[in-house]
Amino acid sequence: MSSPRVGMLIGTGPTAMKTSLALSLAKGLCQRGAFVEIFFYGDGLHNTETGVSVKNIMRDVEQVASMGASLSVCVNMAKNRGIVANNIAKHVKIESLISFSSILSDSDCVVAVNP
């Protein structure tokens, strides 16, 4: 039996409690052998910016990535918010919403965390 695939959409910023909970969930799922794909959208992009120190969010993002999760941000949202590639954590890919639609179709379960 293959590992479960879990897609996550995180649209909350680094100060939101939901963000910490979502990243903790992602770590727990990875520890249990699930393949986790996280797509950061809207305010969620700020969780991937280097230098984010709120609630150790960057540490959590890097831990999830080191556990094998796939992390990406929306290219259009990044452009609209002035976020450039060299300001994003090294394990995070910049992708289009088409990538998120693939996450939706390929996942066994999807968790959306929005404001």
UniProtKB/TrEMBL annotation:
InterPro entries: DsrEFH-like, Sulphur_relay_DsrE/F-like
Pfam families: DsrE
GO CC, any one term: cytosol
Highest taxon above the source species: Bacteria
Protein name as catalogued: Uncharacterized protein
Organism annotation: Methylocaldum marinum
